[in-house]
Specification:
Four Helix Bundle (Hemerythrin (Met), subunit A); transmembrane; MAPEG-like_dom_sf; 0% strand; 151 residues; membrane; single chain; Membr-assoc_MAPEG; mainly alpha
Amino acid sequence: MSTNNYSIPSIIAAYSLGIAPHGYYLVKMMANAKGQSSNIFPRENLSTLKGQISTQVWERLARARGAHLNAMEGLPIFAAAMLTGTLAKLPARDINTLAVEYLGARILYTALYMGVRSEAASYLRTGVWAWSISLPIWALYKAEKVLYGSE
C-alpha cells in the first residue's frame, strides 16, 4: 500500500458504492412503473408499486433499495473513522488497508443483498455486514487510543 493517505477518496468511494444500488433501483423502477411513480413522494414509490408490478421485479427493487439505505446508514461511522484516524495520525498504510477492506466488504455485502433469495444465505449477508461495520469501529478505537490513551 502507498504511504499516501486515501481516507478522503475512500469516503467518496463508499458513498458512490451506496449510490450504485439506488441508481439500479431508480432505472428499474421507472422502467416498470408505467407512469405509476411520483417524484412528489419518491420514497413511497416502492409501496405504491407493490401488486402493480411482478413480485420478482418488486423484490429486486426492494433489495436494491435496502442495499442503498444500508450503505447510507453505515457511511457516517466509516467517514468518522477515516477522518478520526487521519486526525490521530494513524499510519497511512493502516488507514488505507482499512478503507480497502471496508470497500471490499461493502461490494460483497451489496452483491449479497441484491442477490440473496434464501433465508440461509441471508445470514452470510449479515455476517459480511458485521465484518464491514466492525472495521470503522476498530479504527475509531485505535484512534481513540492514540489521541487519549496509552498508544
